[in-house]
Amino acid sequence: MQQPRHKIIDITDKNMDKFDLFCQKSHAKDEGYQNKVNWFKKRYKEGLRIKLLMIDEGKRGLRSRGFIEYMPGENSWRGVDAEEWLVIHCIWVVGRNKKFGLGSKLLRGCINDAKGRNGVAVVTSRKNWLPDERLFIRHGFAKVDELSPFDLYALKLKKTAKSPRFYSISEKKKNSYGKGLTVFVTAQCPYIHNSVIGIQRLAKKTKIPLRIQHIENHNELKKHCVHPYGVFCVLLNGNVVSYYLGGSVYETKQAVKSQ
Fold it and tell me: DSSP assignment, residue 2?
């Protein structure tokens, strides 16, 4: 199939006001989106990169319809030990624009940026909120670690490079956060803000102790890592009950009911 007219824009701290960061773009004034904007400006200096896929769908010219976000593993926002790798946070192509090879084009741009590094790594899952592995396998990625229901895939650009690994997560570490709800919060995803508000309301209604653990950088993420997703997670009495931003309040509510 012929690809639609499109353009890939490298978003920087200088041009970001002319474009968008894709997720929640229709709610650009909301706190969650503004948190992401501020987070991007800080993390850009650490090597964070976003490539925005602009597509002409024949109505209003070029509009954002996908993106890829990645950064150096030593600063990444996934629960992986991946120094000297690039780590993909997110990759999306939406709606009728799938099946044209545009996701592959975004991925190749990331792979090109990884030259001089060990390669590219990505956390995948067939469940919620993360890409599955099929696109990456087609581009030569291989599974290097697993922590069900998550897999870690990597494309080695240096044959002798040490493979990335998930951070070790112990029951002792999860239990150290005590009884009640603990929500691990970052600004990496603009959907996180509303999820936190919903869980705060739930905790107030059910009178369950609630702790919000804000994570401001990679070192803090590593210290508090209780889940491979890294940027958002809900613990209830030391057990992971949700990381899915689209259903975190419902999943947490069900877990509270069943305790």
Answer: P
Averaged in consecutive runs of 10 residues, what is the pLDDT profile of the chain (259 residues)? Answer: 82 90 78 91 96 87 91 96 97 86 96 97 88 95 95 96 95 94 95 95 96 95 93 96 91 93
> Residue 227 belongs to a domain with what CATH number?
3.40.30.10
Of 77, 99, 15, 111, whose CA–CA distance to 229 is shortest? 77
Residue 246 in any domain: the answer is yes
Same domain as 96, residue 223: no
Q: What global pTM score does this model have?
A: 0.94
Give the residue numbers spanning the domain of 20.
6-166
Of 166, 190, 220, the residue that ends a domain is: 166
Nearest to 53 by CA among 18, 86, 93, 26: 93
